Amino acid sequence: MPNKVSYYIKKEWKVVIIATIFGIFFNLSDSFSAIALGKVIDSVGLEDGSAVYTLKEIYKILLFYFGLMMVVNVTRFGKRFFVRLFSHKVEKRMRRVLYNHLMHMSITDFDKEDMGNLMARCIGDVTITTDGFRKAMMEIYDTGLRLTFILVFLGNYSIKMTLLTLAFCPLILIVAFGLKRLIHKYSSDARAYASYINNSTYDLIDNSILYRTYGSIDLETKIYYDELNTLRKKEIRANLFENSLEPVYRMFILTGLLVVMYFGAQNIINKTPYNGGVWTVGVFTAFLTLSLELFKKTCRASILINMVEKASISFDRLKPYLVIDEELKITNKLTKGDLKVENLTVTLGDKTLINNLTFDAHKGQIIGITGRVGSGKSTLGLALTALYPYKGSIKLNGVELNTLNNKEKALEISYMGHNPYLMSDSIRHNIAFSDNDVREVLDDVAFTKDLSYMDNKYDTLIGNNGVKISGGQGQRVGLARALYNKNNLIILDDPFSASDIYTEEEIINNIKSKYKDSIIILMSHRLRIFPLVDKVICLDKGSYVVGSHDYLYEKSEVYHQIFDQQRGDNRG
């Protein structure tokens, strides 16, 4: 499962094995380099006025030391390269699993998400987690393996001095383990507040015009800066215990080195024997170098404990989203057919928005849906996508919609909501999600004249990184996207709110003449074109009336009032 560390290790096992091989050879050769350095020092020493080694032997020792250092650096490079490669592959895989799950989340689950918190997890937590993976893997090699090799070499020189050296290491680890709870508490607090800041940042940018218009931008900016200052304090507190104890660790190292130096000097004076000979200045240098490395690696181990704790917090935050969703396959390909809705009921919390609605529609028909504000028009549109849970039945060509998976629904149903959700991409890609020809559908939504003023025509970039188009233009691009595939069921939620009445009528006539194999569901509060539609549904406080325009004008008081009010406004 992708919510376990072992999943990523198994997936990238080849890289892990190569990194491990390089890690073993690097740490073995680097640990042995201390002994080789001692040999170099002894090779140039004098004993009783005569050279310990001949000049030829000295050259061999120096050449061996040079070759060993070459091995150290080559294996160091290999270890770092493959550890970073592992980290990048894990990050890529983790993001792919995460984003794939987000794309498959139900709308009800997605609506429950806090967007700032979600962005913090998708970006910050993934980075922290994979960075923790990399550092932990690096330290397993550079600390775990190195400590093993160092202890073997130290023990060869003196078991007693090795034990004295080790006596100071547990103190460092005890301090590190003692701080785990504090690091976890403060890091969790900082990550949670970072999610809150993401929301504040989005809100400040999204509502900047509003704040400027009402003269509250200084107040909102001050509040935002105060929140940033709070985040800074939380992050400082989170990092304080993680990074500020290195001087304390160095004090332990200094004390341990003093003990090593004292007993090492005694061994040189007394010419204490060991498995490979007697203690010399070179042997003492090797032992001191290895001891220093032991202390440093113990400190790194303590820091690793803190790093792993910090990464585990982010990984725990990601776990609910690290789910492999079953690959969707198309097993139901419907032919063009009729829509039949029976006893459709939609509730939101304790409130019933649509109650036992029944109607049918045939291909080529346009069904107009209207009602007062809050009557449930948009809710009905979303219910007909079968992305929201519903009670009752919605059948398209005899097939219940909630039996289709999301991929199958996308082939049968297209939907345009209040917000057309334009991507920062070309007009062509916003409509077709490809390089396909979109001229016909743009003509259907009366966009051809707008294109004539754009230098790059269909390939004009729009959105945040492109040309700023008007609300009406953006709405018609979104409408073109919904119409492009000529799906069985096309649901349009207020698609003409930013269009003039002439453009609206032109588009409706195009739809009636060119989309005769589709069923069009049109939600709107503007009723001027409703005499042109085939059937009207007027919603009112959970009840409804279905029929032609003339029938509803006569039988529905709500529809009659809305239509007359708008007709009077137009005449005025």
CATH homologous superfamily of the largest domain - what is it? ABC transporter type 1, transmembrane domain
CATH architecture descriptor text of the largest domain: Up-down Bundle
Taking strands numbered 1, 2, ... along the chain, how are they ordered across the largest sheet?
Answer: 10-13-14-7-15-16
* General form: elongated
Number of helices: 21
Strand residues, percent: 5-15%
**N-to-C CA distance:** 66 Å
**Which stretches are poorly predicted, pLDDT < 50 over at least 5 residues?**
none
Q: What is the share of helical residues?
A: 55-70%
Specify the CATH class of the largest domain: Mainly Alpha
| Main sheet attributes: strand count, strand direction, barrel closure | 6 strands, mixed
From the 3D structure, determine the CATH topology of the largest domain.
Answer: ABC transporter transmembrane region fold
Category from helices, strands and their pairing: alpha/beta
